[in-house]
Amino acid sequence: MTLVAFLQAQNCSNYPASWRHPQTMPDFMSPQYYQRIARTLEEGKFDLAFFDDRLAMPDRYGDDYEESVRHGIRVVKMDLVSIMTAMGLATQHLGIGGTYSTTYFEPFHVARVFATLDLMIGGRAAWNVVTSLNDSEAVNFSQTEHLEHDLRYDRADEFMEVVLGHWNTWDKDAILLDREKGIFADPKKVHRLDHKGKFFRSRGPFTVPRSPQGHPVIIQAGQSGRGKTFASRWGELIFVIFANLALGKKMYADFKQQVAAGGRDPGKVKLTPAVYVIPGETKTMAEEKAALIDNLAHPMDSLALLSEVLNFDFASKPMDEPFTDAELKSIGGLQAMRDRVIQISGKANPTTRDFVQYSGRGTIREVPTFIGTPQAIADQMEEWFNGGACDGFVIAATHMPGAYEDFVRLVVPELQRRGLFRKEYPGKTLRDTLGLSVPEKSAVG
């Protein structure tokens, strides 16, 4: 199975209360913090360390940032490139992935950043393609409001065409380094892109040659209708949230079918749901650890993060007042979360309290949580993996770096014993690790 670590370049993990955990290390603004995590993950033979990101702190709730700052709700958000580089240079096999937005960056810039990173860490880079979420990000980038949902994906489709086009402009054998003849590279094997589209114009030639894995692995996490179409076209590693095993099986089968219908090999697209894992040497120890972690959450964590991810001010709605059809339609952020709340609650017009309860946002109930002995956790992971619900897992951290240390120490050996997970890396690049072929010059999609 594929194992991915879910990271944040901020004061907490994706669990916002993690900074309150007594065992979380406080040096999150140092390279040593991330390099310790990277070495732990490589010791556990993880495929990839992946960074989520936003381009604004959570300030949509009440149009104010004070509560988020007061409670430390994901308010520190550092740029990822230097952190990914530091982690890549501290390891030899671990893949390093990061999030860059197609809504607020330019394709040439993103192509160059990740192509360069890929060279610097020996072909182990991955780019998580996002369209961003909310108006707070827009106003940080000279815009008045966030683009409409489907329009963001239209822009993202063209963004991908440009990025992949640039990554394809150097043939793999273009560089000759022929000192005797004075020829550095064959100009016939370096090409202009000359892209002229609705959203972008980019001429080239690109300035970074191909890496040992061809180009960075493409990560995507779209789960709305339009988002799934985008993910099935471009993604090689797909991050998802499944509420439970039954829904996971259905959504996994539906997505693989959509990939096949688009003319791609579904076996070459990895689908990995997020889970929290809280292991203990005994069931009681694991349950006590889980209780401590769960009690760290603050009510404001949920409200601030719901407002951020759905681009809607939840301070404007009483807790038990149903959303109108118009309000639900106006939600322009992560529409998959809106749809998931409607589905799980069974209410066409859920309330704010329903969003808090059924989304689990800001708590460890946001994604499935496996709690117990290593054997019990491996049983659950095996059931999902062999039961047709996933190709692996995104392991979310409840505290840093202890959640990963516990997983590597307790759970990985049990997965290895069962033949569910590797004992050694199969090669040097991230594509080697994921079992993905080096892309030819044609685009992924």
Layout: helices, strands, pairs:
Elements: E1 2-8, H1 31-43, E2 48-52, H2 66-71, H3 81-89, E3 95-101, H4 107-120, E4 125-130, H5 135-139, H6 149-167, E5 175-178, E6 183-185, E7 195-196, E8 201-202, E9 217-220, H7 225-234, E10 237-240, H8 245-261, E11 270-279, H9 283-295, H10 299-310, H11 325-330, H12 335-345, H13 352-359, E12 369-372, H14 374-386, E13 392-396, H15 402-417, H16 430-434
Parallel strand pairs: 1-2, 1-13, 2-3, 3-4, 4-9, 9-10, 10-11, 11-12, 11-13
Antiparallel strand pairs: 5-6, 7-8
Helix pairs in contact: 1-3, 3-4, 4-6, 6-7, 7-8, 12-13, 14-15
Keywords: Flavoprotein, FMN, Monooxygenase, Oxidoreductase
InterPro entries: Diverse_substr_monoxygenases (IPR051260), Luciferase-like_dom (IPR011251), Luciferase-like_sf (IPR036661), NTA_MOA (IPR016215)
Pfam families: Bac_luciferase
